[in-house]
Amino acid sequence: MSKSLNIKEILERTIKHFEKYGIQNPRLDAEVLLADLLGLERIQLYVRFDQPLTKSEIDKYRERVILRSKRVPVQYIVGHQEFMSLDFKVNKNVLIPRPETEHLVQAVIKFLNEAKFKDPLIVDVGTGSGAIAISLAHNLPEARVIGIDIFPQALEVAKENGKRHRVEKRVKFIKGSFLDPIIKANLHPQVIVSNPPYIKRSDLKNLQPEVKFEPRVALDGGEDGLDAYRQIISGAEVLSSGGLLAFEVGIGQSEEVATMMEKSFDKITVLKDLAGIDRVVMGIKK
């Protein structure tokens, strides 16, 4: 990449390069990586096509292009991802928030807005970046939220995101396995929410190259993909009466998760995502 390249030229070269390496969205990724580097919105690149880039900018962009060519996710390269219209820091220690998970957050918001609990306590199991916990706190100003994760590195990211969105006074991130900290503290939340690992162990080897950069523990759901659901449903006895248990589920898992919940939960509901796939399973504690 020559130091005399302008924005249009470097994008054209990068798009061809990404196509050669089988990148799924070559134009989008090339533009996102460059816009982020230059501190611009993507649309601004188009009105600055003739703007020459400095050698330093080209060198830094080249480093990003090399990483993306190795199938490192764009979100890890730029260090952030949007979720529920909020910007979250992400790195290799946390799962990248997905758009389909917004259905889970929206379902919890709707439930609490209708349930009229006073100062509800929400527990987010396997909080990762804190995207679910923080989005709930942001949209439910009366709510208190506890995000649980087994890994200190993930909790560091979550706490930073909590400060970024100014909800640190109402969102507490703690180290623990599943619902153990809640059970030990004898707390009785009104909502337990989780996007647990749900990929079958045998399917992990078939994942897209990008997904393999994400923490395996956030993906591996055990032999049948349902290990985490069993653990959380078992511990969900701590829910207050009339409380909500809400899960994101993988493709083809909704019926099995709903069946697991039947013993202790009423009004079990399955919600679809925008692709028409069963994505959220939730129920009310008996």
From TrEMBL:
Q: Which SUPFAM superfamilies match?
A: S-adenosyl-L-methionine-dependent methyltransferases
Pfam families membership: Methyltransf_31, PrmC_N
> Which gene is annotated as encoding this protein in its UniProt record?
prmC
Its recorded name reads Release factor glutamine methyltransferase
PANTHER family per the UniProt record, alphabetical: HEMK METHYLTRANSFERASE, MTRF1L RELEASE FACTOR GLUTAMINE METHYLTRANSFERASE
Q: Where does S-adenosyl-L-methionine bind?
A: G126, T127, G128, S129, G130, D149, F178, N195
Q: Which GO terms describe its molecular function?
A: nucleic acid binding; peptide chain release factor N(5)-glutamine methyltransferase activity
EC assignment: 2.1.1.297
Q: Which CDD domains match?
A: AdoMet_MTases
Describe the location of the Release factor glutamine methyltransferase N-terminal domain by residue ranges.
9-79
Catalyses: L-glutaminyl-[peptide chain release factor] + S-adenosyl-L-methionine = N(5)-methyl-L-glutaminyl-[peptide chain release factor] + S-adenosyl-L-homocysteine + H(+)
Keywords attached to this entry:
Methyltransferase, S-adenosyl-L-methionine, Transferase
Q: Give residue ranges for domain Methyltransferase.
A: 122-182
Q: Which residues bind substrate?
A: N195, P196, P197, Y198
Against InterPro entries, the record matches this protein to:
DNA_methylase_N6_adenine_CS, HemK-like, Methyltranfer_dom, N5-glutamine_MTase, PrmC_N, RF_methyltr_PrmC, SAM-dependent_MTases_sf
Output one GO BP term: methylation
